[in-house]
Amino acid sequence: MPTNSHPPYTLEDSLGYLVNRTSRTIRLYLNQELKRRNFQVTGEQFSVLVHLWRQEGQTQQELGLELNKEKTTLTRMLNGLEIQEFIQRRSDPLDGRIRRIFLTSKGQKTMNKLTALAGEILKMAQSKVSPTELQACKNVLRRVHQTVALKLSVQGIPK
Questions:
Q1: DSSP state, 8?
Q2: Which residues, other chains included, contact 39 with Cβ-Cβ below 8 Å and sequence gap of 6+?
Q3: pLDDT digit string, tens, across residues 16-56
Q4: What value does the mean pLDDT of the chain take?
Q5: Calpha distance 157→154 (Å, rounded)
């Protein structure tokens, strides 16, 4: 009988499953806390705001690539954030056809509170993990991401 040199696949040991499950659980807890503390944003909207906070003036296309969001989904999210006056779309000074996205003053103030909340949640989530384990985990995840992203870019798909 042939022997299989690979261990059998189990969902509980799948890196993808563990990463996705952890991310989903943290996102659910974030949404719960956002609602409980009366923030008018969802965790998904928070992710958009974080990317703009880190680098304002992105186009919707750049933001969509960074967040891996479909154009219609991102448009809906941006429209909601604009209605709430967290973001503002402005014409590019060099090419008026291009619209760049910026946080408003309200968006900036809200981000200070939101990032404090996100910090609290991550601190709680990581409380039973040593700094050494946490750093090792982050390093492994970065390497896995780089490996897969390289394969995506080779196939013509942006990283």
A1: P
A2: 110, 113, 114, 117
A3: 999 999 999 999 999 999 999 999 999 999 999 999 999 99
A4: 91
A5: 7
**Ramachandran angles phi, psi of 91, nearest 5°:** -70, 140
Give the CA angle between residues 7, 139, 29 to the nearest 5°. 85
CA 147 to CA 137: how far, in whole Å? 15
- The one-letter code for the residue type at 95 is D
Asked if residue 72 lies in contact with residue 64, where contact means CB atoms within 8 angstroms, the answer is no
Largest CA distance in the chain: 70
66 close to 58: Cβ distance less than 8 angstroms? yes
Both tokens of 79, joined, read 């429209």
Q: What is the pTM of this model?
A: 0.81
For residues 95 and 78, the answer to whether their CB atoms sit within 8 Å is: no
DSSP, res 11: G
Instruction: Give me the amino acid identity at 25.
Output: T
**Distances in Å between the alpha carbon of 74 and those of 32, 47, 65, 67?**
22, 11, 10, 9
Could you tell me the pLDDT band of residue 112, with boundaries at 50, 70 and 90?
very high
